[in-house]
Amino acid sequence: MNANSLTTIKEQYMSFFDAAKGIFLGFTWADAVDILLLTLFFAFVFTFLKNRKAGTLIFGIVACLIIYALAVIFDFTGVKYILSGIFQFGALAFIIIFQPELRDLFEKMGGSLMGIRSIADQSHKKQAQYKAIDNICKAVHVMSAEKTGALIVLERTTQLDEVRHSGITINADVSDSLIRNLFYNRAPLHDGALVIDSNKIVAAACILPLPRHTAVDSELGTRHRAAVGMSEVSDAIIIVVSEETGTISVAKESELKRDFTEDSLRKFLVKELVRDKQAQENN
């Protein structure tokens, strides 16, 4: 190999690396997104066509394209004439041949997008539920400090239509100020229970059933008895703030637990209302 050949090869390598360097330096985030979307699209299409009859048809079309390319290179007039006539109607033929597969493909893509949307909706609902729990705990903490009696029913899977109808419909977003205003001792709706479903205050001044089977400490008042009674007939979680002591209690499954703080109540509600619900949805 002479010196001229080596110089030519070196120049070619330098030209290649200069071109690669230019491409690399000119690479933007839009190019990265473009490549990622194309990769995901072709991966989705390949996975969809795999093990389907449409996959065999695709390979047949690719074979025809290869034959047509060879016919152009070697000037096979008859093959070129026939295949060029077929390719003129290629788009229409493709739609006709692959109509069922194309429909399934677009439905699959739509289903995937709906799945992404569903995940986003679930995330939004979860954040809204965390916010509602935070507002409930703030209101309960303030009412406990002020010794304002309160009775809050957090509805879960058991429908509480009868309890809702016994009170006044509210249908408002959960906020700590609204909860405290509703239980203000001079407010017209402070007696009875507040019913909250997910992130909405649905009704106030509701009447709850008294316990039938569970023994309740005789020192406890009507609110605590009503909370236990509600927990006997539903899976609801009932929060009670004592008007005499300001103690925060929670009734669940016929059991009354006392002496909650704002933080312990928040942890309890997150576990019962958010994590358990998420686990049920995953199952």
Can I get a quick summary?
The protein contains ten helices and seven strands. With 283 residues, the chain is of the alpha+beta class.
Count of DSSP strands: 7
Strand-pairing-aware structural class:
alpha+beta
Quaternary state of this entry equals single chain
Largest sheet: 7 strands, mixed
Q: Ends: how far apart? A: 71 Å
Strand order of the largest sheet: 2-4-3-1-5-6-7
> What order do the SSEs take from the amino end to the carboxyl end, as H and E?
HHHHHHEHEHEEHEEEH
Query: How big a fraction of the residues is strand?
Result: 5-15%
Radius of gyration from CA coordinates: 35 Å
Features:
283 residues, alpha+beta, 10 helices
List the helices and strands and how they pair.
Elements lengths: L2 H23 L3 H21 L3 H22 L2 H12 L1 H8 L1 H48 L3 E6 L5 H5 L2 E6 L2 H7 L10 E5 L2 E7 L15 H12 L3 E5 L6 E5 L2 E3 L4 H21 L1
Parallel strand pairs: 1-3
Antiparallel strand pairs: 1-5, 2-4, 3-4, 5-6, 6-7
Helix pairs in contact: 3-4, 6-8, 6-10
Explain this structure.
The N and C termini lie far apart (71 Å). The chain is elongated. Helix 3 (53-74) crosses helix 4 (77-88), helix 6 crosses helix 8 (176-182) and helix 6 (99-146) packs antiparallel against helix 10 (262-282). With 283 residues, the chain is α+β, with helices and mostly antiparallel strands. The chain has a seven-stranded mixed sheet, sandwiched between helices. It contains ten helices and seven strands. A hairpin with a 2-residue loop joins strand 3 and strand 4 (200-206).
